[in-house]
Each structure stands twice: as structure tokens, then as C-alpha cells.
Amino acid sequence: MIVNIRKFRETDLKRVTDIEKQAFDKNYPEFLIMHIYTTFPDGFLVAEDENSMIIGYVIALVEWGNGHIVAIAVDESHRQIGVGTILLSSIENFLFNECHVKHTVLEVRFDNKFAREFYYSKNYSDRKVLYNYYDDGADAILMIKRRSDLVGNYPIFVNMW
User: What class does CATH assign to 4-146?
Assistant: First the structure.
């Protein structure tokens, strides 16, 4: 399968929200997705198949010198074939090489073993449990990935943990 990664366009919003509803029990409202996009448009990428259909997306910000992956999701009919890996690699490349962040961080539901295993395989590690992080009271794990060529020990500043 051929996967093309490109920047999000406002006309992509409906398809992105459809994928979001498939992937997550609690969805970001459209106004919040658009707010994040207008705040940091370069951090919002979509994956398209060979027919130019959007099959996944990733949203990231730069906060306190870190890359923060806010959301990543793949259409249910295109999972387990590497689309998530391509999206994650693309946004990490942008964050590490163009934004020059030292770390990327993300939150994942504590009980989402599949997602945690995915991130472990991409060299993320558990940093901290975020108790009662989600609206339903579920805990999250703050995961972190250090820039591969980083020399020295740099602190990680986060504004919400």
C-alpha cells in the first residue's frame, strides 16, 4: 500500500473526526481540533491512501521545548499495516529535526495495552502515571521519547502534569 503524508487542510476536518470517533470513546470536539490546528498548523498531518482518501492523522504541538503528541489515529480498515508507524515517524521527524525538540511526550490510557506496546516498540518509555486523567476517571501513562542524538541530561518541562 502506498501512503502519502501531507499537512492537514480544513476540508479534511470531517474525515479526521470520523476516524477520531472510530478510534476513541471520548472525542475532541471539532472546535478544539481546529483551535489546535490554527495554533500549530505544521504539527497536524494526515495519511492518505493511493486514492487520496484520508486513512489516519496525527496532531502534535511544541510545549515548553518538548514535542507533545496530542492524538494519533488510523481508520479501522487500515490498522495493522504500518500507517500509525508512518504517521508517528513523520511527526517525530518534524519535531526533532525541524523544531529541534529534545523529547516528545504523549499520554496513553493505562489500560490500552495495544497502544502502549506500539509506543514501547518505537522507543517510548513510561515516565509517570497520571491518575484520574480522563473524564471517566481512568488513569493515563505519560510516555516520553528522547531525541536519539541528544548528549547530556536535559530536564523535561511540562505544563499540565
Answer: alpha beta
